[in-house]
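Journal club prep, shared notes

We agreed each person brings one worked example of a sequence with its structure written out as tokens. Mine is Putative transcriptional regulator, LysR type. I'm keeping it raw so we can talk through how to read the token line rather than staring at a rendered picture. Sequence first:
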Amino acid sequence: MNHLNSDLLRTFLAIAETGSVTGGAERIHRSQSAASLQIKRLEDIVGQAVFDRHGRGVVLTAAGQKLLPVARDVARTLDSTLREMKSDDVQGKLRLGIPDDQSKGILAQIVAEFVQSHPRVELEVTCAISIGFENALSSGSLDLAIYEVAHPKPDAEVLRKERTRWMMTRHQDLLSRDVIPVALFDRDCWWRDAALSSLEALGRPYRITYSSQSVAGVAAAIEAGVAIGLLGETSQTAGLEPIGAQFGFSKTPESHLILGGAGDDRTPALEAMQEAVRNAFLDVRHA
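Then the structure, token by token:
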């Protein structure tokens, strides 16, 4: 006899709360196809559909509405029990740097789960553009940081690599203009340098029409049709499209997300956070 399990219920809960399979899959760090297969298995077990497709999203059926409070209770009970059993005596202060464009995704989840599992640790989080994090580690003003570089050192711990791409809105042909409008980061950093090098190699007139300190700001300008801009592939939204090589842009560097620590002072709190970060990114790669 088939039984409901918590993994299926968590997938169901994530999709129900976000209103779409895509959104639910992102929340639980799985692919859309994997989440869809789990929902199919759930529906096979209960013998009824739990979602109706509605436009680009989903809505709960009567069976789904009945299942929703059960799924919430199961997830809440299991999470609470796990926190109580895993709670430990790790204590102290940990200063962590997180890139601002990552704060709403997986890294925010890592911080939340760490605080729940290690309540005696005083966590001081700096959420900002990450170009200064490496120097902050060297100076001792941060204990641990996650930051992006184009060319990591040989001994660097790389959490993730992604391609960088020129992108523009799907609704305007900005490349047909005589002078290409460009959105850039407004500080000296490798992202800005890579974009300017690519534009110089292109050999077409351009004008910087927008600048921002954050990925979100640059992405918003691109989606609004203000300019084209250089982003990582994971920043692409439904309103953006990559600019293909046929337009003459040269290949831009990969972005490497690095986990870096300050020196050799490895406290229990630091080691616990490093393990939490590594495990989370390992789960994403295997999802």
